[in-house]
Structures are given as C-alpha cells and as structure tokens.
Write a structure and sequence with these properties.
With 412 residues, the chain is α+β, with helices and mostly antiparallel strands. The chain folds into 2 domains: 203 residues, Cytochrome Bc1 Complex, Chain A, domain 1 (2-Layer Sandwich); 181 residues, Metalloenzyme, LuxS/M16 peptidase-like (Cytochrome Bc1 Complex, Chain A, domain 1), CATH 3.30.830.10. 43% of the residues lie in helices and 19% in strands. The chain is built from 15 helices and 11 strands. Strands 1-2-6-3-5-4 form a 6-stranded mixed β-sheet, sandwiched between helices. A 5-stranded mixed β-sheet has the order 7-11-8-10-9, sandwiched between helices. It is globular, with a radius of gyration of 23 Å.
Amino acid sequence: MIHFEKFELKNGLRVIVHEDVSTPMAVLNILYDVGARDENPGQTGFAHLFEHLMFGGSVNIEDFETPLQLAGGENNAFTTNDLTNYYVQLPAENIETAFWLESDRMLSLAFSEKSLEVQRKVVCEEFKEHYINKPYGDVWFKMREMAYKVHPYRWMTIGKELSHIENAKLSDVKNFFFKHYCPVNAILVVAGNIKTAQVKQLAEKWFEDIPPGEKYVRHLPEEPKQNEARTLEVKANVPLDALYKAYHMASRTEDGYYYAELITEILGGGNSSRLYQSLVKEKKLFSNIECYQTGSTDAGLVVIEGKLVKGVNMKDAEKGVDEEIEKIKTILVEEKELTKVKNKTESAIQFEDMSVMNRAASLAIYELLGDANMMNTELARYQSVSANDILSESKKIFDEKNSNTLYYYSTN
C-alpha cells in the first residue's frame, strides 16, 4: 500500500506528497498534461522539443544543472504521446533547491533564438540518428500512419517529419509553452524523506504565486473502428526480414487494457512465452519475437514484432504467428499459465515501486488518469482477470479486420 496525501494550491496546481523515511533522498516530480497527441498536425515534435528546451535555463537561472549538482542532485525528463514528465532527485535536506529550480522554469523559462537553435540541433540529430539512419528506424512512422487515420497517435513523439522541428519559430514555441506549461495543467509530486507540512509550505512559497494559466481541454478526434485488414510492404537495407503486426485495443482505464496486458504476456512476455517457445525455439522461424502493448492513455495497440531467421519465407513466418493467435482466440488459457503471468505482472509492479523516483512518477501518472490511488488498486484489476476474459478479448483484438501488418524486407 502506497500512502500519500493530496492538496491543491490556489492557482490550481495539484500536489501529492508521499512520505518515506527509509531513504535519505527526496524526489520532486512535475508532470505536465501535454504530449505529442496535443500538437498541431503541421507542427509536430514540439512536446519533445520542450523536454530539451526546459533544460536550457530560465530568465533568472541561466544554468539549471550547476545549482542542482551543488545540491547533490540529478534530474531528467521524458515525453510520451500523452504527457511530459520532469523529475529531480537530491538529498532530502536540499529539497528546496528543486522547488526553486522547477518553479522558476514554470514561471519564466528563457526563450531565446540561441537556446532554440541549440536544442533544435540536438533534436534533429536525435531524429536522424534513431529514425532516419538506423535500421528499421522508420517502422513506427509507417505503422502509426497505417493504424491511425484520424487520432494524433498517428505520429511519433519525436515528430512526424524533421522539417517540423527545423522550421519551428520562436513565436510558435512560446505559444505552445504558455498554452500547456502552467499550474492548472500540472501535477507536482514530492516523495521521500519529507513531511507533508514542509511540502505544503514550500509549494505555497515557490509555486502559488505563478499565474494559473488556462485549463487545457482536449477535443481529440476518436479513431473509428477499423473495418479492413491493412498491409504495407517495405524494402530496405537492413540485416534481416522483419514482421510487424498491430491491433487496436482498449484505452488505459478500461477493463480491456488489463486483459490486453496479460494477453501480451502470455503471447510474448519473454523466453517462456508462447510465441518465443513455438516460433523461435521449436520451429526456428524467428531469431527473436515479442508481443507488447503501447500503454497509451487513449486506445492503444497490441503489437507483435519479430526478425525472421535468414532464409525463412515471410508467408511461413506469418502463418506461424497466425496459428498462435488462433489458439489464444479459440482455446481457453489454462489457469496455471494465467496465474504465472499474473504473478509476473505483480513482481514487475512491486519491483518498479521499490524506487522512490518511480513511485513519484507513478503517483503523478495515475492522478492524471483520474486518481492517484489507482496505484493501490491496479494489482487487484489484474488479479480479477479470468480465462474467459482472455478468450473474449483475444477474439476482439485479433479480428483480422482489426489488423495492421508491415512486411519489412531486407534488400541484402
């Protein structure tokens, strides 16, 4: 059980405190309710660009890193299609340094052509290195565009195309910041060797005077039900042929999400999973294969992907995958196998919760989903999934008309 307290500042900033006296450290985690799905289709990659810009200093503090290092701290951030999360970890007695730094960049981030140019170059290099020049780097650009026709999940967090970042103007960047990075669109979590009264006092001192901003209300287009199988062939200079299949699934807070998570574990969660045992070890069709789900807030994707053994025919490899899918759609999973994946999921959740940094981020994300206490109720939702739930959800997910298949051929 993770204990926490919640309060809200006058400017709408939600604050969550999780006390843990077993550590000498404290974490300040600030989550902004903005991700790649909130971008203009003609100006994508902005949420990720901001992850970089936020480390470029503020009006009052030119260098974010130095004062943090002097306080014995470290920091980082991540951006997804759904959210942007920043976190600082430092000795608990120096927690006020984190309040000072984070509040200052929320209030007065430095906008300059120089800072934009520096971070633009960093992001453009990342784009080229990981997505343009890397083998299979374009897979998710193609897969997202195939699977999503109207929802903004059709582009990646890095952006739809390099030109969107290359052409980003300072005025566009400022507008994006003032629309999203404000108290009413943020959740602050402080965890570790701190007291709630102390956090309340520091939050009021450093954050309460920041203007609240305007609450961002999403009006995203809902992805219509897919009614036909979609396929795409790609030929590229890559080492091996690869097969990618994606199927639409439930959104993050629906029961179907938990069913899908256990289905992916049964099919592709490691070396003891069905796909690995059958198609890698026994039939030797794939050199590796996995099944996972994208974990997104809105309706996501169940994905099967694998690299073929050299010389194996693509149709034979796909037939092997289809046979395993057919089994999970038609044969009730045995209780023993279901218990095994539930136990594995429980272990993964408990392992993740061991670090105070992870607990802080999880509390923020669950609060964004609707209730921080979901952190304490998630496990029960997995445990309540039945073999019949797995069967009926598998039929729904693995409907041929719900499939998006990418055949990735090596030209070598």
